[in-house]
Amino acid sequence: MAKEITIVFPHTLGQEEAHARVVDAVERARAGYTEGVLSSDVTWNGRHADLAIGALGQNILAQIDVEPQQVRVSVTLPWLFERLSGSIADRITQIGRSTFQIGSSRTSV
Prior knowledge:
Layout: E1 3-10, H1 15-33, E2 39-45, E3 48-55, E4 58-66, E5 70-77, H2 85-99
Antiparallel strand pairs: 1-5, 2-3, 3-4, 4-5
């Protein structure tokens, strides 16, 4: 059975700036976490992204929707990763908070 996580990040950056920051954060995360360990694929359609991350023969699926006043991140974890859902949600929250912080144009992932 799959476990779903949804986190909403309110922001006051404007949709263009929020989208630019999300694109940057996703690319840095892919470079930092997937190099040699995980496979990943990101497809953008306007302000919506579909992500597929492969790990240990399992696929983690995620969707990101950048809206004018919030960003919604939804992640579907396969059963193998259910026990890590709290840690994964905490890490997504940490990245999101630093990504949308006013006065910050770059974050560390």
